[in-house]
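Milestone M4 deliverable, item 7.
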Amino acid sequence: MALRKGAKVWVEDKDSAWVAAEVIDFVGRQVQLLTISGKKVLALPEKLHVRDTEAELGGVDDMTKLTYLNEPGVLDNLQRRYALNEIYTYTGSILIAVNPFTKLPHLYNMHMMEQYKGAPFGELSPHVFAVADASYRAMTSEGKSQSILVSGESGAGKTETTKLIMQYLTHVGGRVACDDRTVEQQVLESNPLLEAFGNARTVRNDNSSRFGKFVEIQFNSSGRISGAAIRTYLLERSRVVQITDPERNYHCFYQLCASGRDAEAYKLGHPSEYHYLNQSKTYELDGVSSAEEYVKTKRAMSIVGISEEEQESIFRTLAAILHLGNVEFSPGKEHDSSVMKDENSFTHLQMAADLFMCDVNLLLDTLCTRSIQTYEGIIVKALDCNAAVAGRDALVKTVYARLFDWLVEKINRSVGQDLESKMQIGVLDIYGFECFKSNSFEQFCINFANEKLQQHFNEHVFKMEQEEYRREEIDWSYIEFIDNQDVLDLIEKKPIGIIALLDEACMFPKSTHKTFSNRLLQNFRSHPRWESAKFSETDFIISHYAGKVNYQTDTFLHKNRDYVVVEHCNLLASSKCSFIASLFPALPEEASRSSYKFSSVASRFKQQLQALMETLSSTEPHYIRCVKPNSSNRPHRFENQSILHQLRCGGVLEAVRISLAGYPTRKTYHEFVDRYGIIFLDIMVGSYDARTMTEKILQRLKLGNFQLGKTKVFLRAGQIGILDSRRAEVLDSAAKCIQSRLRTFVTRRDFVTRRIAAISLQASCRGYIDRNRFAFMRETAAAVVMQKYVKCWFLRHKYMQLCAASLLIQSSIRGFLSRQKFLYWKEHRAATIIQAHWRMFKVRSIYHNRQSKIIKIQCLWRQKLAKREFRRLKKEANEAGALRLAKSKLEKQLEDLTWRWHLEKRLRVSNEEAKLLEISKLQKIVESLRLELDAAKLATVNECNKNIVLERQLELSAKEKLASEKEIISLTELRSENTLLKSSLNALEGKNSSLEQELAKAKEDGSKTLAKLNEVEKTCLQLQQNMQSMEGKLLNLENENHILRQKTLNLSPRSNRPGFVKPLFDKFSGALVLSSADQKSSYESPTPSKFIAPLAQGFSDSRRSKSVAENLQVHSEIISRCIKENLGFKDGKPTAACVIYRYLLHWHAFESERTVYFDFVIENINNVMKEGNEDATFPYWLSNASALLCLLQRNQPSNGFLTTSSQRSGMNGRITHGPKFSIKYLGSDDGLSHMEAKYPALLFKQQLTACVEKIFGLIRDNLKKEISPLLGQCIQAPKNQRVHGGKLSRSPSGVPQQSPSSEWDSIIKFLDSLMGRLRGNHVPSFFIRKLTTQVFSFINIQLFNSLLLRRECCTFTNGEYVKSGLAELEKWIVNATEEFAGTSWHELNYIRQAVGFLVIHQKRKKSLDEIKQDLCPMLTVRQIYRISTMYWDDKYGTHSVSAEVVSQMREIVNKDSQSLSSNSFLLDDDLSIPFSTEDVYMAIPAIDPSDIELPEFLSKYPSAKLPQQTLK
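Output delivered:
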C-alpha cells in the first residue's frame, strides 16, 4: 500500500479497535500518524487500512458498496448508521441488525409491511421485512423451503428479530384456520418455558441459550400458513451435572428453589445446598427475581396446554434431580464397591426415590451395581465410588434431556403442526461462537457447531458471489474459495479427528486428560490449525474462523462420557408416576441385553449437528446477524471492541474476507467514471461510452486482473487504493497549479496596488505645493479688496446712525399722542361691556334654576316608565321559561320515539344515531346562540341609551363651556369675578374631557357589540341552514326506514312465496299455469326491489293478459338497446340517460304499484360495465348515471314521485308526522301484499347513487393501476441512469448535462389521455376535478414514500429530476384550468417541499426552525430527519444538515417514539369516496331531456313513440 503524507488511514487502537488517523511522517519502516484525538503513534504500513475521506455522513446501506471493504470500514459504516437510528445494514444478501435498545414503532407498523410486500430485495432500505419477504417470495415462486439463520449473542435482539419475521410471514401468508392467536404469538408464548429449561448464565451473558432452536413455519400449496413446529438441537446436557464459576445451571432449578410453598413440598432449600448448583457461587442474577420467573414459567406451561398434574410432575422431576445430586458414595467393604457415604446422602436418595415414585432400594442398586448379561447368565458387578458418581450423573442427564424433549413436543402440539406441508420457512436461533478465559468441552462443541454453520455460510456467500459474477458475465473460474474444511477435518474426521480420539480415550477406563492431550499432540503436531499451549501441557489451541481459542482438557473425558444404563431406564419406566414412566418407554429387546452401553456426547452432538445441516442444506438460506452495541443495554452507545468481536464471531468479517478473495470493489461505470475520470481528462473529452472510458482509464494505469461486467467494473483488492492514490496525485497537482496561479494573482495585485499608490502620492504632493502658492496669491488680492470695503463700511455706518436717530425721535412723539387717544376709548368700551354682562348673568341664573327642576321631573317620570317596562319584560321572561320547559319535554318525547324506532329496525342504526346526535347538538348550539343574541341585543340597547345620555351631557357641557368663555372675556378686568370664572372653567373642562372619554369608550364598545352581534347573526343563520339540511336528511331517512319497516312487516309472514324463478322475459311471456309444487323460492338478482316488489302474480293467467307481457318484453328490449348501444351526446347531454328517463316517465314507472324497469336498468348497466372496454365504458356511464341521478332528484317535486308528507314543529326540526305510505292488501288468491309506487323509485335512486360511486371508484382504481408503472419508471430512472448511463452527470467543463425526461412525458401523456377520455364522454367537471385531485394525491404519496424508502432516490440529482417533473405537472395543471384540475397542485405539497429541501445548497447553514417553518412546513420532524439522514449529494459532493440539527431532530423523534404508538413517516392512501350525493346534485348543471331526439332504432317499435310533452 503506497502511503504519502496527508493520507487518511485507519490504525488499530486498544480501546476503540480502530481510530481515524493521518500520515504526518515516515520513521524508518514505520509510519508516524496523528490520530483524530490528537495523539501521535507509530505503526507499520501493512497494519494500516486506507480510509475513505469521501464517505457519506449516513454511511451506505450495503457494505459491498464501500470503497474500501475492510474491517475498520465495516465498523465505521455501522457506527455512522447506528448514530442515525439506521439499525439495519446489508452485506450483500446478509442483514446486520444492531439492537437500538429503544422503541422504533415507525419501522414495524402495518404500512411498512405493505411497502416491503413484493418489493425486490435491495430496492428499499435494509429491513428484516425485506429478508422475510425475499424468503417468502422465493418459497412461493420456486416451491422450495427456505431458512433464515438468526445469530448473535444474548441481548442482541434475536428473539425480537424472530418475532418480526414471524409477524411479517403471518401478514403475507395469513392463517388457514381461524385462530384467536397468530403463529408468532403461539411460538413466543412458549419462549419463557424454553428459556427456563434451556437457558443458563455464562461468563458473558446472563441468559445464554444452551440449545439451538429451529422454528418452522409451515405453508400449504397456496402460500397460506398451515402450521408451525419448533425443533431443538444440541442441548448442553453436561451443564446439568457440572458447571464452573461464575456460570449457573439452567434457570428452572433456581426458580424451583425460590418458589416458596412448592419448594417446601419438595423439601428444597437454598441453591447453595445442592451439589449441582453450588459448584458456582452465583445463585442470583442482577435485576431478575427467580420467584417471579417461576410464576412466568408456570403461566407459560398453562398457555401451551400443560395440565396441573403434568406441571407438578415436571417440578417433581427437577426436585428429584437436585436431591439425587447430593447423593455421595464411599468405598464399601468389598473391593471396588460403594455404599452411601452418610445418613444425609441416604435421606436425599430416599427423597429422590419418593419424587420419582420408585423403590429406594432398587434405585440404590442401580446406582451402586451393574448387571452384565452373558451366555451363562446375569452377573451383578459392584461399582466403585467414581463409577457410581458417573452412573448418577448419567441418570440425571438422561432424565433432564428426555424432560426437555417432552416439553418441546408438548409445545409443538400446542402450536399445531401440518405434517403434510411441503413448504416451510425455518428460523434458526442458535448459540454463537464462544471464547472465554477458560474454555472447556461445552465451548469446544459450540464452536464446532459454529464452524459447521460458518462453512454453510461461506458456501452461501461464495454462491452469491458467483451469481453476481455470472450476472455480470465475468470470468471467475480462478478465484479460490476460502473454506474452513481443514478445521472441520481436524475436529470430526475419522479415525484421527479430535472427537474420534476423545471417544477412543473415553472407551478406556484408565485414560486421563493427559493421555488424551498426548494423543492430540502426536497426531496434530504439524496441523496448521492446531497448536499446543505454551504454559500448559494439557491445553491445546484451535485457530477457528473467529480467532484462536485455548481449550482446557481437564473435564473433556468426564463430560463426553454419557452412559445409557438399562437398569435406570427400567427403574423409571416402572415408576408409579405416569409422567416419569412416559419419559422412559419400553426398550427394544436387543437394547435391553446390554446393561451398560457407552454413549459419546460429542458423537451424538455431531450427529444432531449433521441432521441440522442436512435440514439447512435442503432449504435456501438467508442470514441475519444480530449485534449488541453495548453491554449496558442503553441506546446510542456504540462499543467498538464488543461489536468487532461479534462481527468476527458472526462470520461477517469472514464474508468480507471471501469478498476480498474475489473482486471486493464493484462500481458501476457511471460511478467509476464520475470519480476517476479526472485522472485522464483527454479520455473524458472523447465520445466514448462509460464502459469504454473505464477500460481506457484502467489500461492507462496498467492495472491488470480487473474485470468488466455488463453494468459494473470489478477490481481486485488494493486496486482501488492505487486509483485513489493516482486521483489524489491529480488533485494535488491541480491544487498546486491553482495555488501557484493564486499566488501569482495575489502578487501582481499587490504590485499594481503599490504602483497606483505611488502615482497617487506624487500627484498629491505636487498638488499640495501648487495649492499653497495659489493660496498666497489669493490672500494678497483679498487684502486689497478688504481694505476698500472696510473704508466704505465705516462711512456708510456713520450715515445710517444719523438717519436712525431722526426717525426714532419722530416715531416716539407720534406714538405718545396715539396712546393717549386709545386709553380713553378703551375705558369707555369696558364700562359698557361690564354692564351688559352683569345683566346677562342675572337672566342666566334664573334660567338654570328652572331647567334643573324640569330635568328632575323628567327623570322621575322616566323612572316610573322603566319600572313598568321592567315588570312587563320579567313577566315575558317567565312565559319564555315555560316555553323552554315544554320544548325540553317535547325533545325528550322525540328521543323516546327515536329510541323505540331504533329497537324496531336496526337497518340504519349507525347513520341515524350520528345524524340525530348532530341535530341535537346543532339545536343546543342554536338555542345557546339565540340566548347570546338576546343578551347582546339587550346590551346594545343599554349601550345606546347610555350613549344618548352621554351625548346630551356633552352638549350641555359644551354650552356651559361657551357661556363660561364669554363670561371670562367680559370679566377679564374684574379681578374678583375673574378668579371665580377661572375655577368654574377648569371644573367644566375636566368634566368635559371625562365625558368625551366616556363617549369615545361607549362608541368603541358599541361598535364591538355590533360586530359581535353581526357575527352571531351570521353563525345563527348558518346553523339554521345546516339544521334545515339535516332535518331534510332525517326526513328522507325516516321515510325510507318507514317504508322498509312496513314492507318487512308485510312480507315476513310470506317470505317463502314463489315468484323469482325465471328471468324477466319468461315471467310474462304467456299464460303459464304452474303448480304450487313447481314454484320454488329463488332470487334472480340481488337487487333489493326484486325481494320487495314480487312478481309472482305474473304467473297467474287470471290476472295477467298476454298483451301486458308483450309490452313488458318490448319495453325491456328498448331499455336494453338504449343501455348496450352507445347513443352518444347532444349538446353535452347524455342521450341514453335522457331517453331512459323519458321512457320511465312515459311508462309511469314512478307511479305504478309494481315495476321491474328499475332493476332491469341497474342490471344492464352492471353487465355493460363488465363486458365493455373499461377506458371507454366507465367514463361514458359515469356521465349517464350521474345525469340520470340528477334528473331523478331535480324533477322529483314537479313529477310528484318520491315525495313524503312531513311537517316540522319547532326550531329544532323535530318531526311530528312521518311519511305516509299506504299499504294495500290485494284480495287475490296469492295473498301477496303490494306497496305504493313511491318505494321502488326511492330504492332506484339509492341503487343509482351506489352505481355512480362504484363507477367513480373503479375509474380511480384503474387510473392508479395505470399510473403506478409510470411512477415506478420515474422512481427507477435516476438509478438506471447511474447504473446503465454511459455519460456522466456533469461534463468535464462542469456544465450539467440534462437527460431527457421521457418518463415524465409518459405521465403527461397519460394525464392528457385521461382528460381526453373524460371530456370526450362529457363527464361533469365535478367528477373530473375529483379524479384529477385523487390521481395527483396518489402521485404525491408514491413519490414521497419512495423518497423515504429508497436511498438512491434521496439524492441531489434525483431532486433535480423530480423537480423538473413537478414543473411539467404544474404546466399541465395550469393548462387544464382550475375547473378540471381543482386543487391538484396543492396535493403535491409533500413531494414539492421534500424535493425543495433536496436541491437547496448550503443545508448545513440551515437551522431546524428554518427547515420546519420555511422549507418544509408540511413535513413532520420524523420525515425531515429521515430525508436528512438518507440524503447524499451525487453531483457536487455537498453534505446534509449539520450534526447539531440532526441531534435535535433525533431527540424529538425519540420523544415521539416513546409517546406515540404509531408514528410512521410514510403517507397513507385515502380510498374513500370524496363526495356525497348532495355534492353531486349541487355540482352538476340542470339537464332538460325534452329536446333530446330518439335514436333511429326505436322507430321500429310501435310502442316506443313518445308524446310531445313527456315532462310536466
